[in-house]
Every structure is written in C-alpha cells, then in structure tokens.
C-alpha cells in the first residue's frame, strides 16, 4: 500500500525536474547518441554506452530515490540502493570489463535475431522519445514528466531495450533489475493512477520474451 497520493508524487517529481533543468536536454542528446551507436556500432561504443547507462542508474538511485523520494516513501532507500547497484554492475561489466554481458560478451548491434534488434530499438525509442509526451497528453504537468537518465521508469525501459538489441547470453545478468522495475513500476503507476506508466509491465514482459527467445540461439 502506497502512503502518499498522486498529487504529492507529481509535485515532488515536478520540483525534481525543475531543479535539474536543462539536464533533460542533455539526457535526450546522450540517449540519442546511445541509439545511434546501437544502430551503427562503432569501436569503443560498448564502453561509452555502458558508462552512460551506469551514470544514469546511479543518478536515479542517489538523486531521485535517496535524495527526493525518501522524504515520502519508506521503501525509497531500498529502491535507491538497488539502482545504484545496477549502475555499478553496468560499470563493471560494460565499462571496466569492456562488455555489457559475460562470455562470449554482449556487443551492441548484431543481435542473434533481427526481430530482437527491432524490439530493442523500439523499447529504447519509446522510453526516450514517447514516454514524456505521452505523459503530458495523459494529464501529467510538463515539469513532472518521465525522462531517461533522471527518472526510474524511462531509464529501466531504455536500458532493457539496449540489452534486448545486443548480443550475448549474459544479458540476463544486467536485465534482471530493469525487468523487475518495469513490473513494479506498473503496479505503482496503477496505485497512483498514472496512466502514462501503465505500459511499463508490457515493456518488461516484451523485453523478457525477446531475451528468452534470442538467448536460445548461439550469440
């Protein structure tokens, strides 16, 4: 049971986004860069995207959950440290080890399935480009919009999309938390009557199915 109301959450989210402006524009540009590297992989692109995702997850964990949400949600510290842990895992596997997954490695592009690449690109593009305007159209005030790299739902879906479109069986290691948050985020959205976030469970299940199907093929 959630102990705060929809208006309280939206007010907090609006203040958070307003305090960070214009970081949203930078997040959009970096997200587009990651999509470009997925569409046309470049040497070193894996490390760059992993670094971007790691910073995004650590920021959401520390800046959003631990600093903002902890004032109204007793579970926020747990979520915050989970996001920070996910960011450190991305940094370890992707930035330091030079791969987004385990052996034989998880490389951007060249997925085991062309369909998985399309699904992954679709999920990432939805998180980056569609979630903010969808939320606005469904009644959320413009300062209180979901943004990749700054809020949890968009960050989880974007990350899941990149992992779906990549190669490597060990994507499961990095996809577990994004999928879990998509499912939990959908429940929270239902409780708070935030229709823009209702697609989160569908995105998580779609990503899970794509990972399962492509994981059965040689990477």
Q: Concise description?
A:
The protein is mostly helical and 219 residues long.
Provide an overview of this structure.
The chain is mostly helical and 219 residues long. The model is unreliable at 101-106 (pLDDT under 50). Helix 3 runs antiparallel to helix 6, helix 6 (152-164) runs parallel beside helix 8 and helix 7 (171-192) runs antiparallel to helix 8. It has eight helices and no strands. The protein has one domain (6-213).
Q: Assess the beta-strand content as a share of residues.
A: under 5%
Globally, the shape reads globular
CA radius of gyration is 16 Å
**Helix content bin:** 55-70%
Number of strands: 0
> What's the total helix number?
8
Mean pLDDT: 87
Task: Give the uncertain stretches in residue-range form.
Answer: 101-106
N-to-C order of helices and strands: HHHHHHHH
Instruction: Provide the domain count.
Output: 1
The separation of the N and C termini measures 42 Å
- SS-derived structural category: mainly alpha
How would a textbook summarize the main sheet?
none
Descriptive keywords:
219 residues, mainly alpha, 68% helix, globular
List the helices and strands and how they pair.
Elements: H1 6-20, H2 23-39, H3 45-66, H4 76-96, H5 114-137, H6 152-164, H7 171-192, H8 200-215
């Amino acid at each position: 049971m959630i102990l705060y109301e929809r208006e309280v959450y939206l007010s907090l989210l609006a203040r958070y986004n307003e305090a960070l402006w214009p970081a949203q524009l930078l997040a959009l540009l970096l997200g587009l860069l990651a999509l470009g590297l997925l569409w046309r992989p470049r040497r070193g692109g894996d490390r760059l995207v992993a670094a971007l995702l790691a910073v995004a997850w650590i920021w959401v964990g520390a800046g959003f959950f631990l600093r903002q949400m902890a004032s109204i949600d007793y579970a926020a510290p747990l979520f915050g440290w989970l996001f920070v842990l996910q960011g450190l895992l991305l940094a370890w596997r992707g930035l330091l080890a030079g791969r987004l997954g385990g052996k034989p490695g998880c490389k951007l592009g060249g997925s085991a399935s062309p369909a998985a690449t399309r699904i992954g690109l679709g999920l990432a593009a939805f998180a980056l480009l569609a979630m903010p305007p969808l939320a606005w159209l469904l009644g959320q005030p413009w300062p209180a919009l979901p943004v990749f790299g700054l809020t949890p739902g968009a960050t989880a879906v974007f990350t899941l999309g990149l992992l779906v479109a990549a190669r490597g069986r060990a994507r499961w290691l990095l996809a577990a938390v994004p999928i879990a948050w998509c499912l939990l985020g959908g429940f929270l959205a239902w409780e708070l009557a935030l229709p823009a976030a209702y697609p989160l469970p569908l995105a998580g299940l779609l990503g899970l199915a794509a990972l399962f199907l492509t994981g059965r093929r040689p990477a």
